[in-house]
Amino acid sequence: MENLYSKLYDKYNKLKTRKDSEIDRYNHDQEVKFTGYMAAVEEADRSDKEELCVQYEKLLTEETRKGKELSEEVEKLRNLQQEGLSCSARGRYNENGQMESPRDTDSDSRGKLPVAIETERDSQSIQKESCCGKIISSGGSINANCVFHTLLEFLIGMKFEFVTKADGPCLSALHQSSGNC
């Protein structure tokens, strides 16, 4: 009987050893898979971080460039404001306080226009004045409901205002987001 017990015990040990080795092999396979998965996750995470860094660097470079351009533009506008170039454009003004263009003065030197053309020209100037207003030399006001004025402000992104100064009418421009004139 002891012989039988010893055979059973040996068989039990062999089965147990085989079962333990199968479990160890299975655990090792799972560990290898898990390690591979973790390496892939870390690589994907590192790759995403590198892409984000590249995007952030591009955005930073772009914003730095825009900031420099805006600083240069602000400096130019400040220089113009200090020099008084924005409002000191001296020219000939007509009786309405508007600057005369060379075309306006040359037409007087060529002689009188026919009555029909003068009437058409007067109606155009009346339409222009009703649309865009006129600078009144005494009060310095302008019609605020000007389509051209609104379009110009929208396209350029700045608010414009006509101001009458001692040396004549002046156009003042204000950049709304920065508050700079």
Automatic annotation (TrEMBL):
Disordered as annotated region, ranges: 81-111
Which InterPro entries does the record cross-reference, listed alphabetically? DUF7806
List residues of the DUF7806 domain: 144-179
Q: Basic and acidic residues: which segments have biased composition? A: 101-111
Q: Which GO BP terms apply?
A: developmental process involved in reproduction
Pfam families in alphabetical order: DUF7806
- Protein name per Swiss-Prot or TrEMBL: DUF7806 domain-containing protein
Instruction: Give the taxonomic lineage as stored in the record.
Output: Eukaryota, Viridiplantae, Streptophyta, Embryophyta, Tracheophyta
